[in-house]
């Protein structure tokens, strides 16, 4: 991955270079270990992705701190949560069995939710 810097230089990064560091962090941090285990164990669904977000939120002191860190906007987090919890949006695949509010007007598609959660996960891991 080539990154053009403001001074005109190019920084070359290989995302795989971060894996050994992340594995060392996982060995020392049960939240990181659980998040990586969840990521690799379950088929991606809104529910399994929500579990990942819950692990990260617990580690950083709440969902508000995910937004405060700049890893995602409050609106995107709420859109993800609303979609994951909505029977109207996801049917039997939702986290809840019945809706207490109307479905989101713009539900987060699974492909978008996967990218959203993985982006937060990567930013959280880099913070470790």
Can you offer a commentary on this structure?
With 128 residues, this protein is mostly helical. It has seven helices and two strands. A hairpin with a 5-residue loop joins strand 1 and strand 2 (10-12). Helix 1 (19-28) packs across helix 2. It starts with a strand and ends with a helix. The mean pLDDT is 88.
Per DSSP E runs of 2 or more residues, the count of β-strands stands at 2
**N-to-C CA distance:** 22 Å
What does the radius of gyration come to? 16 Å
Beta-strand content estimate:
under 5%
- As a percent range, the share of helical residues equals 55-70%
The DSSP helix count reads 7
SS class: mainly alpha
Report strand order across the widest sheet.
1-2
What form results from the Cα inertia axes?
Answer: globular
Order of helices and strands: EEHHHHHHH
Poorly predicted ranges: none
Mean pLDDT: 88
For the sheet with most strands, the description reads: 2 strands, antiparallel
Secondary-structure blueprint of this entry?
Layout: E1 2-4, E2 10-12, H1 19-28, H2 30-41, H3 46-60, H4 63-68, H5 74-85, H6 87-90, H7 110-127
Antiparallel strand pairs: 1-2
Helix pairs in contact: 1-2, 2-3, 3-7
How would you summarize this macromolecular structure in one to three sentences?
The chain contains 7 helices and 2 strands; from the N terminus they run E-E-H-H-H-H-H-H-H. The protein is mainly α and 128 residues long. Helix 1 (19-28) crosses helix 2 and helix 2 packs antiparallel against helix 3 (46-60).
């Amino acid at each position: 991955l080539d990154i053009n810097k403001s001074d005109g230089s190019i920084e070359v990064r290989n995302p795989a270079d971060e894996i050994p560091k992340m594995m060392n962090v996982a060995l020392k941090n049960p939240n990181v270990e659980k998040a990586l285990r969840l990521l690799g164990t379950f088929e991606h669904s809104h529910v399994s992705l929500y579990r990942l977000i819950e692990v990260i939120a617990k580690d950083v002191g709440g969902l508000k701190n995910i937004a405060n860190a700049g890893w995602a906007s409050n609106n995107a987090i709420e859109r993800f949560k609303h979609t994951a919890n909505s029977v109207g949006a996801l049917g039997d695949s939702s986290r809840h069995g019945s809706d207490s509010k109307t479905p989101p007007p713009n539900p987060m598609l699974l492909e978008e939710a996967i990218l959203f959660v993985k982006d937060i996960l990567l930013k959280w891991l880099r913070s470790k």
